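can u do me a favor
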């Protein structure tokens, strides 16, 4: 979009947090010159849209001090235009890093988690790091995968509400992960996802071999899948939304019209359209203007 076209868009400031204080909301309205404050649909967060928010100077610093998620949203960014929502799995759709929790069953979580963290910060190659981490899992009984799924895996707050919002407008869902198919396939069934792409752990005689079957799903593969499905579903004025938290999500996020850094590493936050740092995933749906108008708060 050209700078001149963008300048003609009407922006609203969306403010979200587990709790938004009235003084902070009023101060933001004053600073931005907003014409009215609108309450957004109930969820796991408090969310408000400040319409006619013309001034953006100093808002990011104020919101950081108040621990508020914020987003300047153009009027054209409407929920019904979303045709594809692509998500990372570990530490995005779910709260854990599965490989770290599997390693914990082997007493190796600190070693594996350190490699995971370095890969997510973009300090080491993701593919090479995955090979190193999976090699440390060799010999584990396959039953540990089920234990991790049932005992430790939890959806991120607001995940089901977010998916319901996008599903309601007909958007397709893609879970594309450098993690493992044992988990993505179960989440696909549990959440009714349309597509899943991930790595497959090699298993022989009921035990992990410490190897990956087939090519590794890395950052480029993630991006390729988003590009492929965008071509199929998001032609015309359709929007592609991508959500991630680590450096290996960056190429995928770059393919999206709207990219969201969810509780993400700094390298990801700076590259995305928006960042959600304090709220759950249901906050993502509030970054889009809904057809029906919520009630006016003040």
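np, heres the sequence
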């Amino acid at each position: 979009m050209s700078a001149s076209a963008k300048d003609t868009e009407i922006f609203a400031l969306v403010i979200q947090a587990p709790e938004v204080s009235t003084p902070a909301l009023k101060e933001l309205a004053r600073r931005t010159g907003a014409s009215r404050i609108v309450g957004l649909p109930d969820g796991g967060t408090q969310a408000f849209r400040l319409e006619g928010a013309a001034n953006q100077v100093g808002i990011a610093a104020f919101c950081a001090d108040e621990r508020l998620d914020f987003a300047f949203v153009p009027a054209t960014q409407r929920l019904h235009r979303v045709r594809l929502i692509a998500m990372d799995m570990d530490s995005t759709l779910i709260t854990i890093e599965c490989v770290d929790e599997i390693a914990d069953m082997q007493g190796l979580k600190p070693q594996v988690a350190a490699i995971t963290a370095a890969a997510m910060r973009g300090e080491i190659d993701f593919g090479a790091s995955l090979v190193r981490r999976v090699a440390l899992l060799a010999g584990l009984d396959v039953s540990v995968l089920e234990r991790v799924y049932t005992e430790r895996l939890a959806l991120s707050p607001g995940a089901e509400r977010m998916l319901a919002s996008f599903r309601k407008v007909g958007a397709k869902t893609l879970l594309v992960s450098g993690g493992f198919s044992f988990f993505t396939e179960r989440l696909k069934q549990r959440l009714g996802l349309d597509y899943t792409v991930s790595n497959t752990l090699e298993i022989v005689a009921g035990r992990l071999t410490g190897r990956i079957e087939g090519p590794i799903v890395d950052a480029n593969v993630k991006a390729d899948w988003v590009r492929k499905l965008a071509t199929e579903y998001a032609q015309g004025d359709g929007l592609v939304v991508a959500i991630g938290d680590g450096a290996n999500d960056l190429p995928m996020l770059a393919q999206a019209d709207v990219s969201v850094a969810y509780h993400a590493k700094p390298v990801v936050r700076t590259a995305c359209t928006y960042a959600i740092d304090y709220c759950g995933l249901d906050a993502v749906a509030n970054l889009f203007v809904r057809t029906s108008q919520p009630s006016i708060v003040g």
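Residues 69 and 246 are 19 Å apart (CA to CA). hope that helps!!
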